[in-house]
Each structure stands twice: as structure tokens, then as C-alpha cells.
Amino acid sequence: MSDMNVGSVSGVYSAISTSTPVVSDSAASAAQTPAANNADVAAVYEKSEGAANKATYSINKMSAEDRAALVQQLKQDQVDRQNQMVDLVRKMFSDQAGVSKLSELFTPENLKNVTQADIDKAKEDVSEDGYWGIKQTSQRLFDFASALAGDDPDKMKEMQAAMEKGFKEAMGAWGDELPDISKDTLAAANKMFDEYYASKNQ
User: Fold this and answer.
1) Measured between alpha carbons, how far is residue 95 from residues 24, 31, 38, 92, 98 in Å?
2) For residue 109, is it within any domain?
3) Is 133 within the bounds of a domain?
4) Does 191 fall in a domain?
């Protein structure tokens, strides 16, 4: 596995973590995508109905070309989401300057331009089944790693290490502890890796 591939997972995870909005009654996100778009990158982890209930990992079984196409699709989806976040940040902080840490941005004064619709959308996006929720975000992380590594446990371990590195980098960019949703997302993604490794030992 090349360093570029490992780095790309770290970068994508870092981008996901730093752009995951902290939602309270005063914080919001503009990450908006119709449900149909989410179907394009739907979960591909499937539990079989066999006696051993052995997991199947369809991304890992894809051809190298199909995995490369999936990586490009996931990257483009991430770029689109980040662009939407940038638009909201511009709206929220158009009159702010000199903020050195991302965690300092989410203050009542800085959120004065946020509408109730923005807040409602943010709450939806980070809900249990929302795009930025734990389930979908952890699944995207695992799918991206699977697309890069194929059905190779050693390469999957490299991807898992890169994901954890990206999480640590996101903490540095955030300037503080990441919110619980980010920590829970990392734990959920790590569980998917553990289940994958267990499936290889059956």
C-alpha cells in the first residue's frame, strides 16, 4: 500500500471529522444532500444468512477498477459536502476575523447569522440516520478503506491506522477535544474493521 493511499484516507477522515458540525441549539450545518444521493454510497456490508452468519464484504471483493471508481465517487461526495460546509461557514462568519481555533468559532456571537432552518437541518444531518450521523459516517470511512485495500487484511490494517491518524489530525485542527459524535464515529468504524478481521479468521 503506498503512502499516498494511506495519506488520502487520513486526509479524508480528517476532513470528515473537522467538518462534522457540533450541533446544539445554536450550531448548524449546511451539509445537504437528497436521500437519493445517499443511496449511491449505501452500505455494502451485508450479513449472510448462513449457519455461521459469516459476513460478506462486497467492496473488498470488487475488482481494482471498480474499487478505484468507488474511491473517486466517495472523494467527490466528500468534496461536495465540504463545499456546502464552506458556504455555511462564510454565511456564519462573514464579519469575523482572527479566530485561531475552530472550536472558538461556535460562539453565540459568531452564530448570529444562522437561521432556524440551518439549525434544523444540522440536527437532522447529525441524527442517528443522518448523513453526518455515526452510522453513515463510519460506514463511509470503512467503505473508503475497503475500496483502497481490497480483500487484504494487512492493507486494511494500514487503512485503519491511517483513519486513526486522520482522527488525531482533526483534533489538532479543531483545537480542542473533538465532539462525542466524532469519537463515537471512530469507535463504530473500528468495530467494522474488527468484524472484518474476524470474518477472515472463520
Assistant:
1) 22, 21, 34, 8, 10
2) yes
3) yes
4) yes
Domain boundaries, position 171 = 3-17+54-200
What confidence tens digit (pLDDT) does each residue in 136-169 have? Answer: 989 998 998 898 888 999 999 998 998 888 888 8
| pLDDT, tens digit, 9 for 90 and up, residues 69-78 | 988 988 888 7
- Say yes or no to pLDDT of 25 above 90: no
Query: What's the pLDDT score for residue 24?
Result: 42
For the chain, give the DSSP string: --HHHHHHHHHHHHHHHHHSPP-STT--------HHHHHTT---EEE--STT--EEEHHHHS-HHHHHHHHHHHHHHHHHHHHHHHHHHHHHHTT-----SGGGT-STTTTTT--HHHHHHHHHHTSTTSTTSHHHHHHHHHHHHHHHH-S-HHHHHHHHHHHHHHHHHHHHHHTSPPPHHHHHHHHHHHHHHHHHHHHHT-
* Per-residue model confidence as pLDDT tens digits over 65-122: 998 898 898 888 877 766 665 565 555 444 433 445 566 777 788 778 888 888 888 8
Query: What cell numbers appear for 69 in the block?
Result: 471508481
b/e map 103-141, b = 16+ CB within 10 Å: bebbeeebbeebeeebbebbbbbbeeebbbbbebbbbbb
- What pLDDT band is residue 186 in, cutting at 50, 70 and 90? very high
